[in-house]
Amino acid sequence: MSRIHRPTRVRRFLSALVLVNMLSGSAALAQYRPPPLTESQQLVKEAEVSQVAASAALTSGNKKEAEEKNRKALQLFEQALTVDPTSVPAAAGLGTVGNLLQDYNRVAEKLKPVLASNPGEISLAYPLGVALYKLRRVQEALPLLEQVSDANLPEHLIVNYYLGSYYLYEQRGDVAIAKLQRYLSLRPEKLAGNDYQIHELIGRGHLLRRDPASARAAFQRAQTGRPESVSTQMGLAAVLEMEGRTQEAQTLVQKLVTSFPQAPEPKERLGRMLLSTGDVAGAETQAVALVKLGGTAAAHLLLGDVRLAQKKATEAEAEYRKVLQLAPGLVSAQIAVGRALQAQGRNEEAIRYLESAAQAGGNNLELWASLGSVNRRANRFQRAVEIHRRVVELAPRQALGYVLLGADHFATGQWDQAIEDYTTALNVEPGNATAQKWLARSLAHRARGRADSNRLDDAIRDLRRAYDLDRSAAMARRLGAAMLEKREFTGARAVLEQGATMQGATWREHWLLGYARLGAGDAEAALAAFDQAVKLTEQPEDLADVSVGAALAEVELGRVDEAVQRLSEPGPSKAARALAEANLPLMLLRRALTRLEGSELEAARKDVELAEKFNLAKQPDLAKLESFTKALLLTEEKRFAEANAALKRGLTPTPRWAQSNTRALAEAYMLYRKEQVPQARKLLTAAAKKPSPWQAKWMSSLANALHRVEGERAYAAGNFKLAEKAFKAALGSDSEDAVLQHNLACVEYRKGKAADAVVTWKRLEPQVPTAALNLGIDAQERRDDIPEAVDAYRRYLATGGSRAGVVREWRERLVVLYGLGGGATASEPSEATATETLP
């Protein structure tokens, strides 16, 4: 029976054990076994073992064994991927080992499908991106490398180096610097010894950004703690060049040539520097030494450029052909061959050669660009435009094609189209120096055409834009000249004052500045500008041109004699002679008018006679000014009939320089000189209804002169009431006039107010000599004070008054009569004397 019940107890025991185990959660009673590996996974595991063995062999120095192990690993990874085409570990391992063995084509072929199924997998993007980059399939590689870079993992830091280097090649300094700085932030300490290479690249990036200060700092960090490095020193030389310190840069490169005689880079750079400055002989020395040093493609290319600069196009072609033997397909050499052929006059051959090279080179921008330029230089402008439009199609986001199209249209004088091309280039690449330069020149050319067709506003608008693009002395001169022609003197002055201080400014900027300042009413500053222009040139024709401007400034300063002297010797310049002939008669007539104001009649007559010797028939307004000036001269000589005829010739019809009331004013003055006071006053009153600002003072003076003449004539006729009225009227507008005050005192004296008159005469004696004469008359006649009278006459005689002869006789008689001998009866004066001075 016992045998029958035993199995039941066993079953109960096992069930209880399982239940307890499940409820208690105690340790498993059996070891865990993972699922069996797939065939692909097994192959990946074996490949990883072989990969580890390769690393160990490489560490021990056995490179051959390491390569064998890596090839075995590659084979195993590939087999794993064949078994499971979706295996990420197999693909990643194949990529790592394949790149290590430089089997980039295999990596690119095998990894692309896997990555397409796993687009965010960094372990695949990294080896595939590196392989494509090594295969120079950069446009495919860049998105992958950027994806890896963004992950910011230390094990992938080399990607940032690749990206930084490529962006430098693309001339994208900002992005390149960012990638290289990320490299420095990720690199392990054990690689810090190579940081100098990264700092050099960062320095080049700053050069692309045109930031010489940051570039210098980067190159100096690269040089710190290391022996003098050629590449770093070359970077510092580039910094000096960017700062405009060309001579210092050349000196530094020359030092490197001496210190590192076997280094080719300094020799090539020095040769290029010398060639750019026109020192072809010095460049040849460096090029020959460079060829002897190694005969590299760069050496022969430099020597070819030297030969081309020496006008030895055949020898240059031979050197360029050598470059192509050493570096087949080198674009710069192919372009150089085209230039050499064209320099020999073999234009068609040059075009065929570059056409063939461009077709073989596929989409090489430089070749297509050069082919179009050769066509342009061969005057095949339409073909040049067609080719350069292809350049635009190949690189629509680069300025190159638009700049070349602009050059094509510039060469044919299509300024509107050229301006559009260069503007587009700047829209694509803001700050493009070539586009800015030629856009400014295109605008300047269009402005010239617009100015010639009397579209000065449009011309100035173009030149303002050109000046914004090209802040140079030459462009300032163009804009200033246009503004002068438009008579915008203030604006022209501001522009030319800037231009005169810029590098490259010549005498012309200062010459135009003189005219701008003259037009703005600053004759003193204008003369200073003309004087500065004289210091900047020694050419007789230039000096003659400046002399004319200086003469005009001197006239404005009242130095008419100096102006006439300058214009009398205009020099050899045709322009100066023309300006002198146009301006010298004007200067002579202006001087004649000035001399008339000063009563220098004889000198004024000579000036008018000199002006008459010029052919004034070509300048009708100037001929009328001569007649007008002569009329005034004849008036002063009291030749009124001739003066009236000359005045009629000068003002009929009215010239541009005359005002509507000029004739009335001139006739009023003529009547004044005839002493026809009522008629003169009537004309003056009519002419004064609409005076110009500068006429007001002259009209006031003439009105005062009429009052004075009227007063003197009334005084002489004994009409003291009218005389008093006239003198007071004159004093109303010129109360400080001493002569008028004196004459009014004479009227008061005759009206019985002798005491008041004597007080006035004593006050005015220092200013009016006749006052002393009247004081002597009063002392002798009214107060019988002979000593005082004699003393007063003495004072009058000391002034050299116009009545000195008569007064001297009076004084001598008084001296004799009153005790100094003789008894002659004096013919004594009996009344006060008014002045007879006319304005």
Give a brief description:
By secondary structure, this protein is mainly α.
Task: Based on the model shown, name its key terms.
mainly alpha; Serine Threonine Protein Phosphatase 5, Tetratricopeptide repeat; 839 residues; TPR_rpt; 44 helices; disordered N terminus; TPR-like_helical_dom_sf; Tetratricopeptide repeat protein; disordered C terminus; TPR repeat
Q: Could you characterize the architecture of this molecule?
A:
The protein is elongated. Helix 8 (158-169) packs antiparallel against helix 9 (173-186). It has 839 residues and is mainly α. Residues 1-29, 820-832 and 834-839 have low confidence and may be disordered. It has 44 helices and no strands. Keywords: Signal, TPR repeat. It comes from Hyalangium rubrum. This is Tetratricopeptide repeat protein. TPR repeats lie at residues 54-87, 297-330, 365-398, 399-432.
CATH architecture of the domain at 426-647: Alpha Horseshoe
What is the CATH homologous superfamily assignment of the domain at 426-647?
Tetratricopeptide repeat domain
Write down the CATH class of the domain at 426-647.
Mainly Alpha
Global shape? elongated
Number of DSSP helical runs: 44
**How many E strands?**
0
Mean pLDDT level = 84
The secondary structure category is mainly alpha
> How widely separated are the two ends?
173 Å
Protein name: Tetratricopeptide repeat protein
Pfam families: TPR_16
Keywords: Signal, TPR repeat
InterPro entries: TPR-like_helical_dom_sf, TPR_rpt
